[in-house]
Amino acid sequence: MCYSSKTGDSSEWGGRHSRDMEDWVQECLRRRKNGDKVEVSGSKGQVFQLGGQQFQPRHFFGLCPGCLKIGEHSACSGCLMISYCSRDCQKKDWKSHKTLCKLLGKLRGGNGGQHLFHKDPEAHIKVSMAVKEVIGRPLTQYESDLLVHARICIVCLSGDQAKLQNCPGCHCVAYCSEDCREEDQELHQTVCQTLHECITDYMFEAKKGHELKCYLPPPCKALTNLPNSFEKVFENDISPLLSDKEDKEYKASELRRLTFQYTCPATVLHAAFVAGTRSGSLAEATSLVIHLVGARQVEIEQAPAWTLFSARLPKLKSLTLVLVGPEVGGSDLPSNFTMQSNNAVVKFVVEKPCGYQQYAKSKTYLEPDLVAALNCGFIFYTSWDSSLDSMVRKSGAPLVFTEYYEADCQMNLEKLEKNTKKNISVLMEPTANPFCSRFAARIPAGFGLRKFKRKNVLMSNDFICIVKAD
Q: Which side of the chain, N or C, has fewer Cβ within a 10 Å radius?
């Protein structure tokens, strides 16, 4: 713990006075007033703002779009794709739903036709293409959800709405019979609570917003390792930022959202505590260079979360994050930008889209203290093959990589061992990551994953492995 949420006395928490806590709270509240944006500076002194993303509507068939009530609802008779808790809510939503409803109803042949995805959830691909062609624009996230996460039986794929019943625990999967429910029971038990949290988190965001968008980690005066529970990284500090401190469900939901925002820096910081860095242990580190390989635009959007390093490492003066990957670049930000955090300058270097092996041979290459490939998918993309050997550094910098499934994490390690000429030591075998996101994402291919006995939800950085060159 860096701070306590208590204020008004001279006690210290984590080496900090309550006055420091009050100043930190006021800084967060000022950020909220500014739209939850964080200022960063370009190399020529330009000022840019990160954050402040707008609310994005999502669709869950167990969530009434009119009043946001979670439960067993009745399907729209025109399209069978959306469900309402009452006639009033259906009328309230008709203006928004009208165009899509008429189009989907026509595609399924009117009220007498079956559900568009009856026995064939993969038909959503063709339907999506047809809808986009007619409306003349890409689908919104809500429209895409409505087609991808359709209310059909998770087991036999029946779209008979009269026979379907939602799982009462999560209202995110449906069954057409008791036999189908029993067949899915063992697998569904592993995800029911997570799906319940998924729909609940969205409901809270739609109703109350995301009050902790303004949060940035408070500084710790003394070096502090991460606690065993990811939520404890935040929960002792956030109460002053919540409008209703007694709403425990909302607080739990907000904590899950923070774990999603901070899972990448927390995972890399955890790996550095476990494996050290090229320069040694973190305790005396004043400067760090970290390479994020396979980085995407989301890493740029969530750049402020990396201030977790400067908050937890009080001696740190300089943190440089180099983002390398085929999907980075193209934003309004300059290729180099910085932000001041506590006593440190946090610098982001966004390389032009390229593979890591190309970057490793470039004149701009910075030798890293640690290399990270998060949610990497080594086994799924051949584009990784030529980069893997370069990512295992002779300098002794550890390589940490994460994956959504444990079996995939193990196969990533095996592929890495085959694709490097160096001898490597496995410092951490593929294992559950204590700093994975607790904020779930539904998988578009969820129906097809049942035959592989895989969960139909993902947690970012769910499994972790750390290696190092001998």
A: C
